Amino acid sequence: MKKVLSFLMVVIIISALSLPFAAAEKGQPVVDDAGALTAEQVQSLSSQLTEVSNETGIDVVAVTITGLESGTMMEYADDYYDYNGYSEDGILLLIATQDRKWWISTKGYGITAFTDWGIQYIGDEIKPELKKGDWYGAFVKYGNLCKDFVAEARKGKPYDTNHKIESMTDKLFRGAVSLGIGMLISLIVVLSIRSKYKPVRLKAEANDYLVQGSLKLKESYDHFLYTHVSRTERSDNDSGGGSSTHTSSSGSSHGGGGGSF
User: Fold this and answer.
1) What share of the chain is helix, strand, coil (3-state, %, to 5)?
2) Contact present, 66 and 94 (Cβ < 8 Å)
3) Are the C-beta atoms of residues 156 and 203 closer than 8 Å to each other?
4) pTM here?
5) CA separation for the pair 107, 95 (Å, rounded)
6) Deepest in the core among 16, 21, 159, 259, taking most CB within 10 A?
7) What are phi and psi of 119, to 5 degrees?
8) What is the 3-state secondary structure (H, E, C) of 212-230?
9) 253 in helix, strand or coil?
């Protein structure tokens, strides 16, 4: 009996060591191995990402580590997703707090919804929070963006190089440019009218108001009452950047991208 128990213990230990990650964190939406989040933040973020996952139909995962002892961010993120019980469709954001790097791994429908352009867009959007060490803020923004990206992909038009989502900076810049152009046009119109304006002065004699040849036409204008506008429909088949893929250690296909902050 003792030999049987010893054999079972050896099998269990070997099986545990063969897994790249601890099974205790299996399937969790938030895994804070770096201890970068408070308990309240983990609970709040878990609720948010679970809601996003249920709404989008894909697993949305957030993971923190302090850094890597070996391998790459891509390998770690891919393997974590593959070996911890997540679904075949999903996205995982990995943040290495001390190494100051981030990586997004996508799988299944996640590869379709998050193109190479989209992944870099998300990275750029969360970078201000990452630089400040606001890990919670970065993950919250990531969750909200995931919901928007999947919703757009379900319509058949994932965000990509030919279908970009505007950032808040882009919107503010576009608004400022539109306002500036409007003010410039208004100034030109006012100056043009002012240059043609001739004030009336009081004449000393009544005869001064008598004008020979009465009416003289100095300016004329053409007013078109009807216009014809021709519109050409733009094709929806314009090619975008798409998603590049690679194979993880488990043999699964993944998309992804990352950077530093």
Assistant:
1) 45, 15, 40
2) no
3) no
4) 0.68
5) 18
6) 159
7) -65, -45
8) CCCCCCCCCCCCCCCCCCC
9) strand
Q: 166 CB contacts (<8 Å, ≥6 apart)?
A: 174
> What's the pLDDT tens digit per position in 184-202?
665 665 566 666 655 556 5
Domains delineated in the chain: 26-166+244-260 (3.10.310.50)
Over residues 103-127, the pLDDT tens digits come to 999 999 999 999 999 999 999 999 9
Half-sphere exposure (CA, 13 Å, Cβ side) for 175? 7
**What burial class does residue 146 get, using C-beta atoms within 10 Å of its C-beta: 0-12 exposed, 13-18 middle, 19+ buried?**
buried
CA 180 to chain centroid? 27
Residue listed under structure tokens 């991208």: 257
Enumerate residues 6+ apart whose C-beta is below 8 A from 90.
53, 58, 59, 60, 61, 81, 106, 107, 108, 110
213: its two tokens: 């040849």
Give the integer Cα–Cα distance in Å for 100 and 123: 13
Under 8 Å between Cβ of 125 and 30: no
CA distance readout (Å), 28 to 31, 65, 80, 179: 6, 15, 11, 47
The residue with tokens 């088949």 is 237
| 8 A C-beta contact, residue 247 and residue 254 | yes
Q: Hey, what are 144's tokens?
A: 């909200």
Is 40 in a helix, a strand, or coil?
Answer: helix
